[in-house]
Amino acid sequence: MQTVFSHSADRQVKKDFVKRIKTITGEVIDAAESGEAVRALEERIWRALLEIGQLLLAMAPSIRCRQATEQDIMDRGLANLCSTANAPIGLPPRVTT
Question: At what angle do helices 8-33 and 38-75 cross, to 10 degrees?
């Protein structure tokens, strides 16, 4: 869905998120394969889960906030302030007296 603020940064954020998840899970798997003690492995897993949770708590609500902002802009009829569909909202021209 094309929206007012959609641009390549959204894809980059998702790409960075997936890359970090792969790194986190890879570290856990590598530790298990290298024979790390069960207790240390369990601690590593909990730290990984906490980090993944933090990433999700940072990313998911921000996506919904952006969507709500876009919807509000559309509902108010302000989308025409954008110079293009892929650009952020611009400011109206300054009025001088």
Answer: 170
User: pLDDT of the chain along its 97 residues, tens only?
Assistant: 455 555 555 778 888 889 999 999 999 999 999 999 999 999 999 999 999 999 989 888 888 888 888 888 888 888 777 544 555 555 455 555 5
The CA distance from 39 to 14, in Å, is 32
Which residue type does 2 have?
Q
Joined together, the tokens standing for residue 88 give 């952020």
Q: Is the dihedral of CA 70, 74, 78, 80 positive or negative?
A: positive
